[in-house]
């Protein structure tokens, strides 16, 4: 079963999470968990939603975190996951080709085109001037 598939009605999700259905409704209103909706506006919870509900309960009861703090923790965890996926995406573009990257409307980095790597002549370090310039060089090709 896909963990994102919305299959549980509110009473079953509440039972699985060890909560009262009214608590799930409150968490939905607060944006802690956002279940899918049926055409009749009924809530449908996924396994991921149930796991989130359990984490909310753990943070609240065991750690003493208030609901606003829990919401912020969940937002930051989602951001970390999104950034991790973006890093993996960027790492997937390895030598000997290079990619040109741009930002999409949401601010995510996307590859736009591939550029063939041109062999470069080894560069010597630049001389330091009397003005105190920084010495820059490129490592030689492997």
UniProtKB/TrEMBL annotation:
Residues 7-76 form the HTH merR-type domain. Keywords: DNA-binding. InterPro entries: DNA-bd_dom_put_sf (IPR009061), MerR-type_HTH_dom (IPR000551), MerR_fam (IPR047057). Pfam families: MerR_1. PANTHER family: HTH-TYPE TRANSCRIPTIONAL REGULATOR YFMP, REDOX-CYCLING DRUG-SENSING TRANSCRIPTIONAL ACTIVATOR SOXR. This is Helix-turn-helix transcriptional regulator.
